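Milestone M4 deliverable, item 7.
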Amino acid sequence: MKNLFWISIILILYTYIGYPVLVYLLSLFYEKTTKGKYLYPTVSILLAVYNEETNIENKIQTLRELDYPLGRMEILIGSDGSTDGTDEIIKKGMEKFPEIKFYKQEKRKGKPSMLNLLVEKAQNDILVFTDARQRLDKNAVSELVKYMEDPKVGAVSGALFYESEDNNSGTGIGLYWKYEKLIRKAESRMGSMLGATGAFYAVKRRLYKQMPEDLILDDIYLPMKIVEMGYRAIFDKKAKVYDKLFSTPKEEFMRKTRTLAGNFQLFYYLRGLFNPFKGKISWQFFSHKFLRLMVPFLMIAVFISNLFILNGAFYCSVFALQIIFYCFALLGAMSRQKNKLFDIAHMFCLMNAAAVVGLYRFLMRKQGAMWEKAERTI
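Output delivered:
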């Protein structure tokens, strides 16, 4: 039991502390430079939507406000069997913004199918993917594509900022997202990050691979397939996209469950990245993606093994600390008053619980490629 206890403890500490520190230090010593110029390549902005009548008008407006030459840009919006007023709003928007091209799938097939169709219709060199809910900074596209002139770069991810980040920077989800962005920046400096910000990223059209129609996470699958081909997937902190925090833990839990179910699916579709001969990208994939999803099971292993080795002050103290931590998480879930310590413990446990539910949904085939409309408006 002691071996199980210590192996689990070490792997948890490595996942959340050891790997981030290592990747940050390596990025300082082995930084890969990236060439970037504002050359304004031709871009196709792709937007797949389903029942987005509460968001699509604002999204079209934020696209109209982009500081990018209109003659170098086309916008393709695909409605995947929408049954609300989404299609009518898009058609109305086309009257004021002729750069929009509208496509409709009468029968709902899922986001990957819709994106595959839009890519077939796209005419330009760079594909920019975005979602309906998020607001783009007016310089977002020009910042995102400025690195595409570098022949070694195949994909670029924008940077997601929460509109209320200043007010929520001390909350669990706010701190988690800042922590995650630090890791992504370090991975990008060192070579390639793992995936992209789904709300806003770009790839070179010639590198695009048709996505499986049951795919859950296009924003990780597509950049990683490009990395497998020998190109870099980098992070651009100046290409800003804005979202709002999900207001309730339940909403965040459901979103995270879908994302983590998608990660388990990617272990199959990107199984070649587990090959250690792939180099540091294999190490990154194992450490950042695989071990992160194993943490809830390691936490269970630590707790159960600790129960059987309460034969000293150290092991009794560790067990007591676990009890206190889980009590803090419970208080964070029950309390209406914000408390940073309780909130961090709550969000940590919530996200790890989502990994367990995500695995169940993946194994039971309960999480498909169909996505529900966004719960927040921009």
